[in-house]
Amino acid sequence: MKLVSVIMPAYNCEKFIKQAIDSILNQTYTNFELLIADDCSADTTKNIIDSYSDSRIKRFPNENNLGYLIASNKLFSKCTGDYITFQDADDFSSINRLELLVSFLDKNQDHLCVGSNIVKVNENGEEFYKSNFVLKNNEIKDFFKNSRIVMTGSSLLVKKEVLDKIGFYNLFFDRLGSEDVYWFSLILSKYKVANIQEELYYYRANTNSVSSTFKNPKTKVLHNLIVFLYKRRETGKEDYLQSNNIIKADAVCNFLIVIESVVSNKFQSLIKFISLSITWPTLAQLFYKDLMYKLIKQKNESHK
After folding, report:
1. Which class for 145: exposed (0-12), middle (13-18), buried (19 or more C-beta within 10 A)?
2. Which of 19, 181, 189, 199 has most Cβ atoms within 10 angstroms of its Cβ?
3. 202 and 109 in one domain?
4. How far apart are CA 169 and CA 282, in angstroms?
5. Domain residues for 15?
6. How far is CA 107 from the centre of its chain?
7. What is the total count of domains within the chain?
8. 269 and 169 in one domain?
9. Contacts of 184 (CB under 8 A, 6+ apart)
10. Residues 227 and 167 in one domain
11. Tens digit of pLDDT at every position of the chain (304 positions)
12. Of 166, 157, 178, 113, which is closest to residue 6 (Cα–Cα)?
């Protein structure tokens, strides 16, 4: 049996972490290591982690709060498995999750990444949504290119060579979220991927998530930024994050924020777009059609 590394950053999740850990320890696939980094929690999270004696658990507590992304990167660097997957500390997995994901990659050697459908639950564990992701590589590429949601990052299992070649989460997304989506987009550009039909991962809608607690306006446009960069890579153009052109990546975010804000504040958004265009005329050309589409759509809806 190949070894699976399961990474779990954990921060202030005392209500949920026992269920998260138990859902991995009780897997039907037993050859795994569970790498947990308590991220300097202020509650009893670390005490709960330390109460386990299972030898498959490896602990890497942080002396300072690093945030989810950097804590994940730290755990990536400690992985020794043939496969790598995730278990967020406020979510949980079905008992056969690892078995089915490993089986898929073992049987489909041309694929290096596989995910599954998910179930969303509330803070009480009550189910309220089930995903219906497309399953095949070409479908996933087409849907992603059209800004559709095609996976949940924590549900993914990847071969170790993906981590070796793609690298860890990009620091641009630190404390913003969507680091997993960008990471997945890089995998999608290089390798065959798939989802399996079964719902194997239970994702908890948590009011303490990055998207809920961080007010940076970038957070709301990061998915669109990632799709924009993915399309550029696919046509041989510069991915600003791959070339570490952070100033230009931020500029793209600002254009996307302006376009998203047209509905609520058309006049100020237009002024902001013009202002940005003076500094970034080439980028402005790329987003002009998106702005016009938004304005025309808004006008048509107002006349209905």
Report:
1. middle
2. 181
3. yes
4. 28
5. 4-213
6. 26
7. 2
8. no
9. 113, 151, 153, 156, 193
10. no
11. 999 999 999 999 999 999 999 999 999 999 999 999 999 999 999 999 999 999 999 999 999 999 999 999 999 999 999 999 999 999 999 999 999 999 999 999 999 999 999 999 999 999 999 999 999 999 999 999 999 999 999 999 999 999 999 999 999 999 999 999 999 999 999 999 999 999 999 999 876 554 455 578 999 999 999 999 999 999 999 999 999 999 999 999 999 999 988 877 888 888 999 999 999 999 999 999 899 888 887 767 665 5
12. 157
Question: How far is CA 66 from each of CA 23, 70, 210, rounded to the nearest angstrom?
Answer: 25, 6, 14
Single-letter amino acid code for the residue at 106: D
Q: Do 155 and 227 have their domain in common?
A: no
Closest Cα to residue 115, out of 171, 32, 45, 192? 192
pTM of the model: 0.93
- Token digits of residue 88: 């967020």
What gap in Å lies between CA 67 and CA 49, rounded to an integer?
18
Count the Cβ atoms, other than its own, within 10 Å of residue 16.
Answer: 20
* 3 state DSSP class of 6: strand
Listed in order, strand segments (DSSP E) in the chain are 4-10, 32-38, 57-59, 83-86, 92-93, 111-121, 127-130, 157-159, 192-204
Verify that 232 and 98 share a domain, yes or no. Answer: no
Q: Give residue 156's identity as a one-letter amino acid code.
A: L
Sequence-distant (≥ 6) Cβ neighbours of residue 60 within 8 angstroms? 35, 36, 37, 74, 75, 78
